[in-house]
Amino acid sequence: MFAFKKTLTLAVAATTLAAAAPALAQDSGATIGFLGGFTGPIESLTPPIFAGAELVAKEVNEQGGILDGELKIESADGACDATAAAAAADRLINTNSVVAVVGGLCTGETIGGFNGSGLSGNVVFVSPASSAPALTTLEDNDLVYRTTPSDALQGEKMAAMLLAKDVKDIAITYVNNDYGKGFADSLSAAFTAGGGTVAANLAHEDGKADYRAELGNLVASQNLVILAYANASGNTILRQAVESGNFTTYVGGDGMVGDALLNGIDASAVEGMIATRAGAPTGDATQTYQKLATDAGIEANATYAPQAYDAAFLLALAIEKNGSTDREGLSAALRDVASAPGEKIMPGEWEKAKELIAAGTDIDYEGAGGSMDFDEAGDVDGIIVELAVEGGKFVEKGLID
C-alpha cells in the first residue's frame, strides 16, 4: 500500500526482524511506554504531555479495557538526551516489555531511544513532540511516527508570521542539536525567500551559565529569535538578552513555550514576545478532547498534550486492532486505524472503536491535534499557531496562515 521512504537495506532489515521479540507474554491487557524528558531542558513541559497520554489509559480502562484487560503506561526519563534515552528505552522495552512507546519528546531523545533498543526490538514509537526534520529520513523500518508536524512547516510558518508583522530582519540563535538546526535552517530559508534578511544565524551549546559572548554576535538585528528549551539555554539567553538592552523583539519556537521560560525575568520586559507551536484545528474532535481534558483536570492546551493524547490513543487502537500484544504487525495496524477509509472515531470514543474493531469494521481516528493520516515517512500534516506573552503567560492568538 505504501512505498516507504524510511527503509533499511535488506540485510539490516532481515537482521532486525530476526532479532525482534515476536510476542510478549501477557494473558490480557497491554502495557505501553512513555519516554520523555522528566528532567533536563524540557522538564517543565513534560508533566502535562504525560498527563495527556495517561488520560487515554484512564478512558480505555473505564470503557471496557484493552484485549480483555487493563491498559498500563510505564514512564521513563529520557532527559531530552540521546544517551539517557537509549538507557531509558532499553528498560521500557527489555525490562518492562512494553508493546510500543509514546515518545520520545526531544528529537534526539526519540532517535537515541529508538536506535538503542527500538529497532532491534521491532518496537513502534509514536512521538507527540519530536519535530526536527531529521526524523523524516530516519532509517526505521516503518516503526517511527509522530503526531506533530515537522519543523520544516513550523519554520515556514514562523517566517510568514514575522514577515506579516513587517519584521524585515532577524538574528537567530539555536540550540546545537537536530531540533535547533532543523528549525533554524527552515526558518532562515523561508524568511530569506520572503524578502527578509537573516542578519545572524548562530548555534549555541546548551547548559551554559553565560551566553553574553554569543549575544554579542547577534546584535546586527534587534529582533532576536531563540530556538531552544524553556528550562535550559532558552531561559538563560532570554534573561541575558533582556539585561543587555540590545533587542526590542523576542521570538521563540515551541520548545520555549512554558511558564519556566520566564523564571527570573521581569515579565514586563518581554510583554508581547511571540512564539509558535503546533496547534489543533477547530472542530468536533478538538472540542471533544478539550472537554475531556478539562473535566479530568488537565491543561487541555498545554504544549504537546493533545498530540500525546493522540499518540497514546492511536497505539491503543492499533494494539486492539492487532489482536494481541505482539509487536509484529503493529505498524500496519497503526496505519489502518489512523487513516481512511473507515468510520470516524473521535477522542474519548474507545468503547465505540472497540466494538467496530471486533465487528471487523474499518475505523479512522480523528485526533485532538487534527487528522492523523500518516504519510510514507510517518509524518502528519498539521497547523501552526501563534502565541504571545501577555501578563506573564503565553496566550494562544490563533492560526498562522
TrEMBL record:
Gene3D superfamilies linked to this entry: 3.40.50.2300
One GO term of the biological process aspect: amino acid transport
Coiled coil regions, renumbered to chain: none
Domain Leucine-binding protein: 31-338
Keyword flag Signal: yes
Segment forming the signal sequence: 1-25
InterPro entries: BCAA_transport, Leu-bd, Leu_Ile_Val-bd, Peripla_BP_I
Pfam assignment, any one: Peripla_BP_6
Alphabetic keyword roster: Amino-acid transport, Signal, Transport
Annotated PANTHER family: LEUCINE-SPECIFIC-BINDING PROTEIN, PERIPLASMIC BINDING PROTEIN OF ABC TRANSPORTER FOR NATURAL AMINO ACIDS
Family in the record: Belongs to the leucine-binding protein family.
Descriptive protein name: ABC transporter substrate-binding protein
